[in-house]
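Collaborator request, handled under Task 6.
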Amino acid sequence: MTVANLIRQRREKNQSVLIGYFPAGYPTVAESIEVCVAMCENGVDILELGVPYSDPVMDGLVIQEATETALKNGFRLRMIPEIVAKIREQVETPILVMSYWNPVIQYGVSRFAEDLSSSGAQGLITPDLIPDEAKQWLEESDRLGLDRVFMATPSSSPTRLTQAAKLSRGFVYGVSTMGITGTREDLDANARAVVAGVRASGAETPVCVGIGISNPTQVSEVLSYADGAIVGSAIIKAYRDSGISGLVDFVRELKAGAK
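Structure tokens returned to the collaborator:
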């Protein structure tokens, strides 16, 4: 099932969509696979699998530390297809890989797209790639039928919001607030404006909101106006502090907030 179809089907049934982020290879490759499977089995509807990168300019401290650990423990970009495939063997949850664009260029855009497709991933989230500069990725994702998720931010112009809405496939990633990732006590009110701006474009692409969402109350708040809630740093922290059992409990709490 495609990501967009899953979101639409759940919306038609008045069911929520919880998207969970976790970095591949953290703290080791084997453990990251175990964590991702546990997330999918306990309430995450769409898995966002992060690619550790040495220059994570948009990531907060929790994700930075996790990705640094993954890299120190031997994660390499070439491992992504195998990690996706091993998760896919165990769950049917849609998987979107999230990567800065430079690693994809280094890997080779066509090769990366082909390996994503063959591994069982649904597509790619590109936080630092704007549609204007995405010609090759648009062509490759069209060729292979992969989802592509672009960002919509509080500073995006109406033209940029329209581009993100019309060229994204799967969903548009609505950024809740300006700044790096991490948990916040109060979500920026601009998130609502981002969602409204995307929908004003006339495109039917779902909009999911992330960055700063850290508890069930915030998940519920976001889902009152968006099609999905994305949680990342708080999930990593739950695992870091309390292991698999703590992560499972936390994901279940988030899912309860999403109902």
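The cover message to the collaborator said: "Residues 178-186 have pLDDT under 50 and may be disordered. The chain is about 50% helix and 15% strand. Please let us know whether this matches your experimental observations."
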